[in-house]
Write a structure and sequence with these properties.
The chain has 264 residues and is of the alpha+beta class.
Length: 264
């Protein structure tokens, strides 16, 4: 069985920036263990698979795999999947709806940008976070810690986020996916995302993290529309909007390569 694979850089308008995702369109699901092996072989933050959905009003069912495990939500790979559908598969539509483990996700094409409608996951402040977190993240001071799917760690300044020097071995033992964030200088907020327990030391640009960051900063700043940057080496820019119980994220994608693999 021969399958196509597309590698797309998401949340960027230039090659070798943003977050790369491997996109594999399917006619029917492969076995779970095979999809996990393919994700491990690709060795990108995410390999995404989608199949035509039998559900009314839904275009595709979608699933995401890191090199280590399946996750319940991924923004950049969803953006990349919509890019493949609109640009490479050339489906004549302006909106695509996916069914996922996190519910329905809609991506709308607007000129050369893609706008995703995702769940809003507001994190709540906690005190029972792992001891030694400051040292493990390589930061001088933590303002507060919050939790939703991931730990959200608030820092004082953009420089603190950019200058963090995480100990990935220690973070992996903690077993948490961790967002660090602070107010931005040229944007409303900045962040970085670490998930060594999921096989990703640092993710370049993370849509699912922004499902948590957007409601957090919307309340803190008193704004419903914001711009954000993820301060990884590759970097990425995200348009953010809080819309009731949903969030809107906008960005661009760039095609990098296509390939074919043969499953015996």
């Amino acid at each position: 069985m021969k399958l196509k694979l597309y590698q797309i850089d998401a949340f960027t308008d230039k090659l070798f920036a943003g977050n790369p995702a491997a996109v594999v369109p399917l006619k029917e699901w492969l076995p779970d263990d095979l999809m996990q092996k393919l994700a491990m072989e690709n060795n990108l933050a995410e390999t995404v698979f989608f199949v035509p959905s039998p559900a009314k009003g839904v275009d595709y069912d979608i699933r995401w795999f890191t090199p280590g495990l399946e996750i319940n939500l991924c923004g950049h790979a969803t953006l990349a999947s919509a890019f493949v559908i609109f640009t490479i598969l050339k489906e004549k539509k302006r909106t695509v709806t996916f069914h996922s483990k996190s519910g329905l996700l809609t991506v709308r094409k607007k000129m050369d940008e893609l706008w995703m409608d995702f769940p809003s996951w507001k994190p709540e402040k906690v005190s029972d976070y792992p001891s030694g977190l400051e040292e493990a993240l390589g930061v001088n001071e933590i303002v507060a810690v919050y939790r939703q799917r991931d730990l959200l760690v608030e820092l004082n300044r953009e420089e603190d986020v950019a200058g963090a020097k995480p100990d990935f071995t220690t973070l992996k033992k903690m077993g948490e996916m961790i967002i660090i964030t602070a107010p931005g200088k040229s944007v409303d907020f900045v962040s970085r995302f670490f998930a060594p327990a999921a096989g990703i030391d640092e993710d370049p640009v993370t849509g699912s993290a922004h499902s948590q960051l957007i409601p957090f900063w919307s309340e803190k700043l008193g704004k419903t529309t914001m711009n954000a940057k993820q301060l990884s080496d590759r970097g990425g820019e995200i348009y953010c909007e809080q819309n009731g119980e949903r969030v809107i994220m906008g960005g661009k994608c760039v095609f990098y390569m296509k390939g074919e693999f043969d499953i015996k």
